[in-house]
Amino acid sequence: MKTMIFFAVALALSLFTPALFGDNVRVLTISKTTSQNPSIFFSGVSGAPELTAALHRFLTACGWFDPAPNAKVADYTLEGRNEGSSFALYLKMGGAPAGSWRFARTADVRESAKTAVDTIIEKTFKELKVKGFCRSKIAFCARTSPGVSNIYVCDIDGRSIEQITHFRALCVEPCWTPRGLSICYSKYGRTGIDVLETTVAKPRRSRLISGSQGINAGAAVSPDGRYMAVIRSPDHQVDLYIIDLATGQRRRLTRDKAVEASPCWSPDGRFVVYVSDESGRPRLIRHDLQSNRRYRLPTIGSDAVTPDCSGSGQVAYATRVGGRYTIAVCDSTKNTNKRILDLPGDWESPGWAADNRQIVCKRTLNGRQELYVIDTWSGKARLLASPGIPVSMPSWSQCAPKTGER
After folding, report:
1. Is the torsion defined by CA of 127, 132, 135, 136 positive or negative?
2. What DSSP state is assigned to residue 135?
3. What's domain 2-28+135-393's superfamily in CATH?
4. In DSSP terms, which residues pair with 195 in a beta bridge?
5. 329: number of CA atoms within 13 Å, CB side?
6. Which residue intervals of 337-395 are DSSP H helices?
7. Arithmetic mean of pLDDT over the chain
């Protein structure tokens, strides 16, 4: 009974959310900023209104610029020129040239905009260690009817929403494979919970990864794509396992009366962080896969759940503070552990972006559930999606390569 109660609670913490698959870009100030983004004024690409609109959206959604109302108050100005089968962009800083690029125009203006904005932020910000950030995707679950939830993906601006799975069942806990080519998730059936993998590109193919009797849930694929951490209960005891995806060999990491949940990997693949209730309340445990030693991570608040590791080793998690769930980040390299926002509502299920800066999460307020992106550097959050149906458990993919520049 304890096992099922804990899993029901864990599922409820991160599962169902209501919002708007719409065009709103709402920005909330979380706290006093410690690192202000440079502002940019984009005058558009003449004669290309759709391309201009797409460029505006990704310049805002990338999280590395703040839009300026006019050129006089902007740190950067960007102007474009339509050249038929291509377009050119000219970036200036303080009136001085800062970069110019020419891009091939494609039939999909959003793809053209992603390529252009990726090029600009990669050339402008040395802090950005990744390429193709605008081509990354966000997976999440959406409940369309009682007992039916499927996996969807969207772009970083909340648009181009696409349904990935089509089951008459509960599909939850999406996680990306390292290259972003497929998504693993938990699928509830009549006799148990299985972990499946479905490719993102069409024609989509699905396969069973872990389907033993009982619970198979909380899948997390290692950074090198070789292993999967998963919660299983083949002997009616809920424990954490590692599965070799090539051979199917299983390694059991825990064997106790505690209930484990929500594993995630360190960027070097040496550690797994997960939730355990061995102390009587959900806490975060870090398990060294080489030494097989484990210890409790320091957290703030109570009931720490749904951890996620960034590529730089920070652990974001949801935790209860003052009766509400909020998002906190533990950074062992800087010996810091802090709450990153203080806004109304319950904030849950954080997932790091590949830039190690932004986090996608779920917010519930007044019965309304939405997906938000939190910028942990600038102290701002923006609405990602609010489709009016329960949405939850967002997961941000790694970056995709950029194409089309010449």
Report:
1. negative
2. G
3. TolB, C-terminal domain (2.120.10.30)
4. 186, 210
5. 22
6. none
7. 89
